[in-house]
């Protein structure tokens, strides 16, 4: 049985080693970058804008909330003195709207390119009808409302598609390389995806939201094994409940008495990813700041008393579905399939070709017969 160690996939796909979680981000590495953020008018997006504006980056936000976006850019510009902050209307569910956002970003970029794209826009399910199939026995059964998939999945796929076009065309940037010297390379090509803890575990009553966020984890896992071919690095953040406007009153009631995270910890994690050109193919979860320790059984215990040793932390590296398990499985399947093909040889190929031609003729005859 082959072992994961026999296949050093991490180096083949240029995945960087595990993060040093205790190290703070170096904001000076963000300075010369042009960064595009979808859904940047509120919550995390607003937090990224404020921090990266203060660090001297060119930041372009696209959002459907024109009033909030305009005001945020104006106020942050005044406070930081950064004149390279821009708001453009963008509805991520509308392809032309996103195309225009990327074109506008290139236009306002001092170096004519985009260094980082943050696919951040997201909504929760305003109308969770998928599990309430009322009216289906009527004469015109209504379809479920899939708006959350439009924003959280279709929107993110549009953003990714555009990012993979614009990032490799970023003039003067270096292709992503985990072994680069971060003191020399400030401008590279980076896509940061936003999923959620609901991308790795269920979130009852928000089925479509959790489905969309699982899909973003899937997107990330696929991209990180192919993005290096475009010289693009991809990373992922999966926040737990964090205090932003997306958390509804009902959500806050359910969480009452528990722990909720702070947006600045998500901004810190994102800054780490954006700033450091060596980080590629890594994912973190961000939650409330807690002090925990591993017991002798390898389980995590909460350190409740202040005097107990250890630092509080909000950012944790996420190893879920890592290559060690999943990619070995894929490799084994492919190996077996290739072996079958080898054994069947040219005779097998010839038989299958005849079958395929017969299939084509049959379909054609059926179509012609109406
Ligand atoms: N806050 C949390 O607890 C939490 C947890 C896990 C994941 N997330 C994810 O983080 C991301 C940011 O969320 P947030 O907490 O900052 O929420 P938020 O509601 O404060 O911000 C989301 C922004 O997206 C914008 N937006 C919505 N639909 C859009 C569209 N069609 N086109 C463009 N922009 C649109 C909104 O106007 C808003 O400005 C989302 O993808 C969210 O799912 C948040």
From TrEMBL:
Transmembrane segments: none annotated. Keywords: NADP, Oxidoreductase. InterPro entries: NAD(P)-bd_dom_sf, Sc_DH/Rdtase_CS, SDR_fam. PROSITE patterns: ADH_SHORT (PS00061). Coiled coil: none annotated. It holds the Pfam family adh_short. The keyword NADP applies. Belongs to the short-chain dehydrogenases/reductases (SDR) family. This is NAD(P)-binding protein. The lineage of its organism: Eukaryota, Fungi, Dikarya, Ascomycota, Pezizomycotina.
